[in-house]
Every structure is written in structure tokens, then in C-alpha cells.
Structure to design on (307 residues):
């Protein structure tokens, strides 16, 4: 079953303790789709400027991403410049230029309106709502947001939350949205705002999933070297939604497996700058890391049970 994603397609400049990468293809919708396409067909709704390079378009289309909904407008593509601290869980945004995103009014194509799986990546919640308004009863709607919208558009965001099945936030955003410092209390408070499931992304500490009946936690896959954490959250969401779309069922069990696949995909993207690692990734590598992940977290793993 196919997935529609709306969100940023960007040129990022990234500085991390491991080095820097100027003007590389990024954006939340880009990371999401490059990860999700391993599992299900993906269609992007976004806008880029006249400076968007043919080779960037080629990167996406050659990985089977449907770009009919990628508008190109006069002006510049969205740009983001970030710098990570020694502790790569924290970063400073040095600049953001919305550029063509400023006047963006997403319009879905007829087949996109009928999509089963919709991911509202981090953009203005008014635009997220306008995309949702255009769809005809998707089976699953997931969405992301950021501190800026929690601070500046809290009323619009709170109106949107009951319409979202699965909300993804990082720990800082969960605290900000709920007004609770403790993440369990924050999780419970956010579920009361509407989403059926909440995923709290905690960088190298993994992911916490909250639903009305249960709580589920996975670590991040431990890596010897992290080069660039940019896009880890969106890549997680891509693996997560991708798995659900491929599986076709949304149950506590498939949600838990989806969290593991999301974490597996995120563990790859941070190994190189930008999209580089995802672009060279194979199914075999995903499969192997999925198995390594299960073994990492399973205290009754069959490999050790007879000893
Ligand atoms: P993540 O590391 O998962 O938070 O995502 C990083 C990506 O989000 C980068 O590729 C940026 O281009 C994109 N991004 C950063 N700020 C914004 C924003 N205000 N709106 C939309 N996308 C953004």
C-alpha cells in the first residue's frame, strides 16, 4: 500500500564533530521517503525552487519515489544550516530560510487524495491540516512537528492532534507540548490531546512508544561511530510507516515491529553525512541489522538459550 508524505525537501549545510557537508540534499520528506521506499511505494508532496538541481531530482526518482507532487517554483529551495555539539544529541540551528516554502499551498493529486498512509512531516500545522482536509479517509495518519510550531501555533496544532493517529516528537518537544518534564507523564498528557499512539524519539537513547494500554521502549542500535544525526527522526518515521504500509495491519504487535524497523533505518542514516548511507543501503543489510537488533534486546534469544 502506498504512502504520501508532505514536508520539506531542502538543501542542508551540516557541521558535526566528524566534519561538515555544505548544501547537501536533505529535508524531512526526503529522508522519510528514501527510508520508506524500501518497504512501500512513496509519493512526495513538497515544493522546491528554481535552483533545485536535476541531479537531486534524479536521486529521488531513481529510487522509485513518485515526484509528480514535487512542485518547482521561481525562487530558492528551503535551506537549513545546523551544527551538532560534541554530544550529538544536541544541535544548534544556525539558520533556516523557508524560501519557496513560504507561499506553499499543497494540492494533492486525485490518487494522493485516496492514499491509505499519510505522513505529515514537520511543516506548519496549518499546511498539515490542509493536506489532511484533502484526503479521503486514510487508514493511518502519522505526523511530526517541532518546537517552533509548539510555541507559535499551539492552537492550530492542538486542533490537528485529534485527527492524527500517530504523533512523533523528540523528548524536548514532548516536554514542551505537555508542560511535563517527566517523559511518562508527558506521554500520558499528550495522548489525552488526541493521538492514539505517541512516539518519543530520544536520539542515542532510543524510542518510547505510548498508547492507551501500553508502553514500549527500544534502545538506539549502538554504533561505534556516528557521523551525522541529521534526518534520523524522519528516517525513523520512514522505516516505521514503511513497515506498517507493507504489512497492512495496525496492531500493537505490528506497531512494535515498526518501531524496531524505524530504529534500524535510523541507525544507518547517521553512519554517513546526509543521505549517503541510505542511498547505498541494501535489503540484506537492513535484514541483518534487524536480526542483530532483535538479538540485542531479547534476553531469551534462541541463540543463547541452550547454554
Ligand atoms: P531531523 O534531524 O530528523 O530533525 O530532520 C532534519 C531535517 O529537517 C533537515 O534535513 C532539514 O532540512 C529539515 N528541517 C529543519 N528545520 C525545518 C523546518 N523548520 N521545517 C521543515 N523542515 C525542517
Amino acid at each position: 500500500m502506498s504512502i504520501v508524505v508532505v514536508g520539506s525537501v531542502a538543501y542542508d549545510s551540516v557541521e558535526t564533530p566528524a566534519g561538515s557537508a555544505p548544501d547537501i540534499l536533505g529535508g524531512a520528506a526526503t529522508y522519510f521517503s528514501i527510508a520508506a521506499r524500501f518497504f512501500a511505494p512513496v509519493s512526495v508532496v513538497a515544493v522546491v525552487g528554481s535552483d533545485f538541481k536535476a541531479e537531486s531530482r534524479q536521486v529521488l526518482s531513481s529510487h522509485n519515489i513518485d515526484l509528480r507532487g514535487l512542485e518547482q517554483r521561481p525562487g530558492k529551495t528551503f535551506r537549513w544550516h545546523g551544527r551538532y555539539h560534541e554530544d550529538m544529541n544536541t544541535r544548534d540551528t544556525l539558520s533556516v530560510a523557508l524560501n519557496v516554502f513560504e507561499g506553499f499551498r499543497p494540492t494533492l493529486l486525485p490518487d494522493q487524495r485516496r492514499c491509505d498512509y499519510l505522513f505529515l512531516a514537520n511543516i506548519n500545522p496549518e499546511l498539515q491540516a490542509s493536506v489532511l482536509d484533502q484526503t479521503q479517509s486514510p487508514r493511518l495518519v502519522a505526523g511530526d512537528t517541532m518546537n517552533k510550531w509548539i510555541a507559535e501555533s499551539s492552537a492550530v496544532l492542538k486542533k490537528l492532534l485529534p485527527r492524527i493517529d500517530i504523533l512523533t516528537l523528540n523528548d524536548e518537544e514532548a516536554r514542551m507540548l505537555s508542560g511535563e518534564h517527566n517523559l511518562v507523564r508527558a506521554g500520558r498528557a499528550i495522548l489525552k490531546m488526541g493521538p492514539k499512539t505517541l512516539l518519543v524519539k530520544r536520539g542515542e537513547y532510543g524510542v518510547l512508544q505510548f498508547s492507551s494500554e501500553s508502553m514500549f521502549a527500544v534502545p538506539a542500535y549502538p554504533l561505534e561511530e556516528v557521523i551525522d544525526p541529521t534526518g534520523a527522526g524522519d528516517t525513523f518515521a520512514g522505516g516505521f510507516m514503511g513497515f506498517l504500509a507493507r504489512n497492512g495491519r495496525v496492531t500493537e504487535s505490528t506497531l512494535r515491529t515498526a518501531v524496531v524497523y524505524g530504529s534500524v533505518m535510523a541507525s544507518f542514516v547517521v553512519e554517513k553525512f546526509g543521505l549517503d548511507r541510505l542511498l547505498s543501503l541494501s535489503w540484506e543489510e537492513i535484514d541483518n541489522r534487524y536480526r542483530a537488533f532483535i538479538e540485542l534486546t531479547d534476553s531469551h534469544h534462541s541463540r543463547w538459550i541452550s547454554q
